[in-house]
């Protein structure tokens, strides 16, 4: 659970908030008008989040690549008797 603090108070307590994040392992959410604005997280948390984001992107790219490589070729369409091909939404083609 993150500790929430208004931006006006966070300005006055920035050094203390940094210590809470670095040494206390807390996550701090700075709010404006009660809505989350930014979060203070440790450098280790940020690195972990970025690593997870990179892994997720690589999985999507790998999935898309495997789907494209498994699409039937023109020769495959003839070989398996596929006569129609989806060309999108344009009806004027």
Itemize the secondary structure elements and their pairings:
Elements: E1 3-6, H1 7-12, H2 14-22, E2 28-32, E3 35-40, H3 43-69, H4 74-79
Could you please describe the fold and organization of this structure?
This protein has helices spanning 7-12, 14-22, 43-69, 74-79; strands at 3-6, 28-32, 35-40. It has 93 residues and is of the alpha+beta class. The chain folds into 2 domains: 3-42, 3-Layer(aba) Sandwich (YefM-like fold), CATH 3.40.1620.10; 45-70. A 3-stranded mixed sheet has the order 1-2-3. The longest helix has 27 residues, at 43-69. The radius of gyration is 25 Å and the shape is elongated. The protein starts with a strand and ends in a 14-residue tail after the last helix.
Summary tags:
93 residues, alpha+beta, YefM-like fold, 4 helices, elongated
Strands of the largest sheet, in order across it?
1-2-3
The sequence of SSEs as H and E is EHHEEHH
What is the name of the CATH topology of the largest domain? YefM-like fold
Number of strands: 3
Secondary-structure-derived class: alpha+beta
Q: Classify the beta-strand content into a percent band.
A: 15-25%
User: Helix count, per DSSP?
Assistant: 4
Helix fraction, binned, reads: 40-55%
Count the domains. Answer: 2
Mean pLDDT: 81
Q: Class of the largest domain in CATH?
A: Alpha Beta
CATH architecture designation of the largest domain: 3-Layer(aba) Sandwich
* N-to-C span: 55 Å
Largest sheet: 3 strands, mixed
Poorly predicted regions are none
What is the radius of gyration computed over CA atoms, rounded to a whole number of angstroms?
Answer: 25 Å
Anisotropy-based shape: elongated
User: By CATH's scheme, which homologous superfamily of the largest domain applies?
Assistant: YefM-like domain
């Amino acid at each position: 659970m993150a500790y929430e603090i208004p931006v006006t108070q966070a300005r006055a307590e920035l050094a203390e908030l940094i210590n809470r994040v670095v040494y206390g392992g807390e996550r701090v959410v700075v709010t404006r008008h009660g809505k989350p604005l930014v979060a203070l997280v440790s450098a280790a948390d940020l690195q972990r989040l970025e690593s997870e984001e990179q892994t997720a992107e690589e999985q999507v790219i790998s999935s898309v690549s495997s789907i494209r490589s498994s699409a039937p070729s023109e020769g495959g369409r003839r070989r398996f008797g596929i006569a129609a091909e989806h060309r999108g939404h344009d009806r004027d083609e």
